[in-house]
Amino acid sequence: MKRMRCRPSLCGRFLCPGAAAAAGPGKPFPTPQAAWRALSTVSTRPNAAVPSPPAEYPAETVVLVTPSRDPLSSAKLAALHARLSLHPKFPVQTLARALIDQSAERDRFFNNSSLAFLGNTLLGYYGTEHFLCTYPRLPSVVLQAAMAASVGPRPLASIGREWGVESAFEPTPNVDAGLLQFKRLPPGTVVTGSLRPPRSQGVTDEEAMADFVRATFAGVYLHEGVAASKQFFRQHVLSRKLELDKLFNFVQPTRELSRLCAREGFDSPVARLLSETGRMTNTPVFIVGIYSGNECLGEGQGGSLNEARIKAAANVLKGWYLYRPFDTADVPSKTDVYPDATFKPTMIDSGEVIV
């Protein structure tokens, strides 16, 4: 291993001896793009000679060049590529770039900022069309909560940890290319609301891991195509269980149900006691049903008549908003994969009830 002096912001340009070899003797030092391309064509040997940086770069920091910086020589990166069952079209160089957060490397040609932006757009698009086509009556507030619970920073970070991705303690030049590299926030930093510090000062482990997952989705989309990215989304996002009925928070369910019945032309809802037990004990149970005419819309149980009535109204509203068409409609992105396929539009509801 040989020592080399360079600036920390330019370390990525000198981490591979193949970059200088690609330029050739007597030629100027290659650009960052050429150095990155050289990673996939020239192997790094433990005893290979390390080139000196150009004279125009002042010597500021001593860094150690290790063979593990080469994506093709990193065992961790190869194992991660295999665990995710990525196609051979997906190069390990892209996966290595997805692991470099912009807080660790400011050069946009080396960090995952552009890939994370594209991945965030794809995840938002696929998630929105899934929920809107599957549950056409879903209120906007519940839709936003479902999106946050599916493709938000916290669930994406959980997905990254389940993939077995490990984080580097500090983004130094000798860190293995298969580790997540980001600059950590100082202890005690407030990261909520408008007090969130700029990304150059550091990020949390959750934010860095979420951006890595977004960048990986973008890599699948760019290298493997639309069909593969949708399949990747179904395998890693839609396969996770999400209880939508627990995302509702009705403030006045009985009043909202009355407005809903009036709007749809149904008979006014009436609460009726169906059964009870232990009225004179400390733990009574009442079962109340909500009727519209002769049809029972839903039931609810509670320790008092009022509690059972409110729960019954809330259950009726959940049944209305969580309605799923018997014949599931096609999602709009179907035509992206099969341009000549027949598209069946989804149902568009009148919207949620405003109380």
Please characterize this protein's 3D structure.
The protein is mainly α and 355 residues long. The protein has twelve helices and five strands. It has helices at residues 17-23, 32-38, 75-83, 92-98, 113-134, 140-151, 153-162, 205-224, 226-238, 253-264, 305-321, 334-337, and strands at 3-6, 61-64, 269-277, 285-292, 295-302. The strands form two sheets. Strands 3-4-5 form a three-stranded antiparallel beta sheet. A two-stranded antiparallel sheet has the order 1-2. It is elongated and about 70 Å long. Mean pLDDT is 82; it is low at 1-66. Keywords: Mitochondrion, Ribonucleoprotein, Ribosomal protein, RNA-binding. One of its GO terms (cellular component) is ribosome. It is found in: Mitochondrion. Residues 77-225 form the RNase III domain. Belongs to the ribonuclease III family. Mitochondrion-specific ribosomal protein mL44 subfamily.
What structural keywords apply?
355 residues; mainly alpha; three-stranded antiparallel beta sheet; 12 helices; 5 strands; 39% helix; elongated; disordered N terminus; RNase_III_dom
Widest sheet: strand ordering: 3-4-5
**What do the pLDDT scores average to?**
82
Radius of gyration: 28 Å
Total helix count?
Answer: 12
The main pleated sheet reads as: 3 strands, antiparallel
Low-pLDDT windows of residues: 1-66
Helicity range: 25-40%
General form: elongated
Please state roughly what percent of the residues sit in beta strands, choosing from under 5%, 5-15%, 15-25%, 25-35%, 35-45% or over 45%: 5-15%
Count the E strands. 5
Q: Decide which structural class fits the backbone.
A: mainly alpha
Q: Terminal Cα separation, in Å?
A: 70 Å
- In oligomeric terms, what are we looking at? single chain
Keywords: Mitochondrion, Ribonucleoprotein, Ribosomal protein, RNA-binding
Pfam family, one: DSRM_MRPL44
Protein name: Large ribosomal subunit protein mL44
Main location: mitochondrion
